[in-house]
Design a protein that fits this description.
The protein is mainly alpha-helical. 42% of the residues lie in helices and 5% in strands. The chain has helices spanning 2-26, 60-69, 78-84, 94-104, 119-124, 129-132, 159-167, 178-186, 188-199, and strands at residues 134-136, 144-146, 149-150, 156-158. Strand 2 (144-146) and strand 3 (149-150) form a beta hairpin.
């Protein structure tokens, strides 16, 4: 599957970039101000042969994007669905988000789109007192004010955080964790899109430097 090869391709090209740089150093090649680096481009040094930057070095991010997206339609790419439900404020910048959507071949979702909201962010938006109410944590061991001397009051925790912890300990019902059940119900449209994503056999998340600086290393690109 395409996504299974992504890490391997990245490792090979990253090693190639290092090897190519070492080869250039051994050959005594140096770049003059504004000039091109004297590096032999080919399978023995750079693995891939392009595209080239202005200084003559390989643009490995562009090379990987070309290799991994070759023949991949948006409707076959699982990342399209994942990107669509990722809220705008979780991207490095609006420009980075726009560039990624341009590369995967779909429009940037509008303000009324359905997004997956993380539980922490969802809880911050709730006005109901029940979400932020501090309640006794009856499952927590007694707090001690001194060895063998329990505190007069049991530990308290924010209700939604207490419910989340309890849902992570084993099977639970909506009656036992109503706030978590409410959050999941509100995320259902986004979860449906995520379910569609996992049915797809290919995954390609474009390699884009969030700072849009020319000449940055492949290792500086944000990974999925």
């Amino acid at each position: 599957m395409r996504y299974a090869a992504t890490a391997a391709v990245g490792l090979v090209l990253a090693c190639a970039a290092h090897a190519g740089a070492a080869a250039a150093e051994e050959a005594g090649a140096g770049a003059a101000e504004g000039g091109a680096i004297e590096l032999e481009i080919g399978p023995d040094t750079t693995v891939v042969e392009g595209p080239l930057r202005d200084d003559g070095t390989i643009d490995y991010a562009a090379a990987m994007n070309a290799m991994l997206s070759d023949g991949l339609a948006p409707e076959d790419n699982a990342f399209v669905e994942i990107a669509a439900i990722t809220p705008p404020d979780e991207w490095p910048s609006a420009a980075h988000r726009a560039r990624v959507f341009e590369m995967i071949g779909v429009d940037v979702p509008g303000a009324d789109a359905t997004y997956f909201v993380r539980l922490e962010a969802y809880a911050e938006r709730q006005d109901e007192a029940g979400w932020t109410e501090r309640v006794p944590d009856n499952d927590a061991p007694p707090r001690m004010v001194a060895p063998g001397v329990p505190a007069p009051q049991q530990a308290h925790e924010v209700r939604w955080e207490l419910e989340r912890r309890r849902t992570q300990e084993g099977p639970w019902s909506a009656e036992e964790a109503p706030l978590i059940a409410q959050w999941l119900a509100d995320q259902q449209p986004a979860l449906d899109r995520l379910q569609e994503a996992v049915r797809r056999e290919a995954f390609w998340s474009p390699y884009v430097d969030p700072r849009f600086n020319d000449g940055n290393m492949l290792l500086e690109v944000l990974l999925p």
